[in-house]
Amino acid sequence: MEQKSSLKVKVQKLGTALSNMVMPNIGAFIAWGVLTALFIPTGWLPNAEFAKAVGPAITYLLPLLIGYTGGYVVHGQRGAVVGAIATFGAVAGSEVPMFIGAMAMGPLGGWAIKKFDQAFQEKIRPGFEMLVNNFSAGLIGFGLLLLAFKLVGPFVAIFTTAIGNGVQAIVDMKLLPLANILIEPAKILFLNNALNHGIFTPLGAEQVAKTGKSILFLLEANPGPGFGILLAYLVFGKGAAKSSSWGALIIHFLGGIHEIYFPYVMMKPALFLAVIGGGVTGTFFNQLLGSGLGGPASPGSIIAILSMVPKGGSYLAVLTGVFSAALVSFLIASIILKADKSVDDESALAEAQAATQAAKAESKGQTLSSQASAQFSSDDIQQIIFACDAGMGSSAMGASILRDKVKKAGLSIPVTNKAISNLTDVTNTLIVTQQELAPRAAQKTPRAVHVSVDNFLATPKYDEIVAQLAKKSSAELAKDFEQASAKEDVVDLNYIDEVVFAYGENKGSATMGQATLVEIFKNRGVGIPVSKVENHQLVAFNSKNILVVTNIANQSVVQQFAPQAQLLVVDSLVTTPEYDKMIDRMHK
User: Fold this and answer.
1) Distance CA 130, CA 110 (A)
2) Burial track 36-73 (b if 16+ CB lie within 10 A, e otherwise)
3) Domain PTS EIIB type-2: where (predicted)?
4) Within a 13 Å sphere around the CA of 68, how many CA atoms are in the beta-carbon half?
């Protein structure tokens, strides 16, 4: 059993490595797909001049981007440069699009320069760093270029041609629908990106170069099977699964986020039959009707799919493939759900979602863990960062929640959010991540303090974090929160003669905040002057009839220079609702 799990992890890691080289460059594939769909002789807007860019783009641009990205993943910028040089050797040594060669030579180039740096970087004499770094990258890249030109390019050309012929043979034999027997379960094990971007996108691009479209872009991206599953839950489901299925259906079908339906399948494994049936049916009709796309549909939403239908392609055929898959998936799932006599368990969906998160983490070579609470205090922490894959969305909302608690506890610690890839390894930093991303964040910032939570939007760990920072018990902290809430209304503009925006480095935000408040005062008939000053000038405004406006990152500095002034601390100097609240209190 352990060997089976290990094999699955290895396959997932390989697939993730392949997709990590292609996914960042999907925009380039889409641009090339649009270029092809518009300007080739059979395109929507035939243009011989613009069409000249189609061939060089697939021959040079796309493989070099993949090779560059593959090298970057292994060893940053130096790895990217050497990876691109090595990839060019494979490109120049072959007459077929060198996607597979790029996936091999890019990481190889990054690995080669990484090993060189590990062996010699600390031995370089002072003053010779730039010379050694530039020549090492150039010479290693040169050697790999020759290797790729003579060996890799020709070999991969033969291999690529063989794979292409094999795929075409499967298509000719009308057996392509059987691929969905493997594709649909693999998607739910989070091999979806590996399949779509690591395999189907490169092969599909080669088919587009020859025929103007490819059915391979519809194999994994078809939203029909997931649509049918969620629709069945909407009609025949129970409890939380039923009530949440409508929103999930919209996100899946229009937003293209297929991962959202995976927990619904995992909570009732018999539904694997439904997605397989839907996938096979959709591909059967796509093959029967000659469907195909001119580029990858990413994300796999119905909007992205329809936008990539080439001229001469049938929108009706593509829609038939999608909705036939949805219908069959719905019918099979409905039978399974109606036959299920089990009493609804409200926790079943949550457990399935947890299992899905575990599978997602495993696909990235990670393991979920309930990380123990780290020990820290406000003496150790100078900033708090919420980190996630994209650095937006739920992490931003989580940061806002904790920022409010930190503020109410009387602490002046800034709370921000970032993508994990943008984190820097510094001390005196507390990193908050979701559990499945904790290993990545810890690897990126080993010197920081790390706390993992199961849900950015609802977790008791925020109170624990603030209690540790404030060195207070839960009861004392609750009292502080209550007092802080009561004090939110203390700013009374009837006793304020001037409002001052204080700034350190962010003069621009203070300027915009000043302009915003001036406009609000003007519209509400308030005649109080509004100005802005640097922090060190606040000593001239250290009076109770002055209101100083600043953000939480600047709060402690303001209190040092103007301890007697009234203080309004806001999350955003420009968009906060506190300005209107002040005026409302003024007129009570």
Assistant:
1) 18
2) bbbbbeebeeeeeeebeebeebbbbbbbbbbbbbbbbb
3) 382-477
4) 10
**CA trace torsion 164, 170, 171, 174 (10° rounding):** 180
pLDDT mean over 306-316:
85
Q: Is the peptide bond before 563 cis (omega within 30 degrees of 0)?
A: no
Would you give the DSSP letter of residue 390? S
Cα(first)–Cα(last) distance of the chain, in Å?
70
Name 523's Cβ contacts closer than 8 Å, sequence gap at least 6: none
Average pLDDT on 26-55 reads: 83
Strand, coil or helix: what is 173?
A: coil
Q: What is the pLDDT of residues 152-199, one digit of tens each?
A: 878 877 876 776 677 667 767 778 888 888 888 877 765 666 666 667
For residue 464 the two structure tokens come to: 């624990």
Q: How far apart are CA 562 and CA 107, in angstroms?
A: 56
Q: What is the pLDDT of residues 493-507, one digit of tens each?
A: 777 889 999 988 767
Nearest to 193 by CA among 259, 292, 138, 145: 259
Angle, vertex CA 557, rays to CA 556 and CA 561, nearest 5: 120
User: Which among 291, 284, 282 has a CA at the least distance from the CA of 222?
Assistant: 282
Domain with CATH 3.40.50.2300 in the chain: 383-485, 498-585
Judge contact between 587 and 494, C-beta under 8 A. Answer: no
Answer CATH for 498-585 from 3.30.310.50, 3.40.50.2300, 3.30.70.1280, 3.20.20.70: 3.40.50.2300
How far is 82 from 309, CA to CA, in rounded Å? 36
Q: Which residues are catalytic?
A: 388
Query: What homologous superfamily is domain 383-485 in, according to CATH?
Result: Response regulator (3.40.50.2300)
Is residue 112 within 8 A of residue 138, CB to CB? The reply is: no
Confidence of residue 461 (pLDDT cuts 50, 70, 90): confident
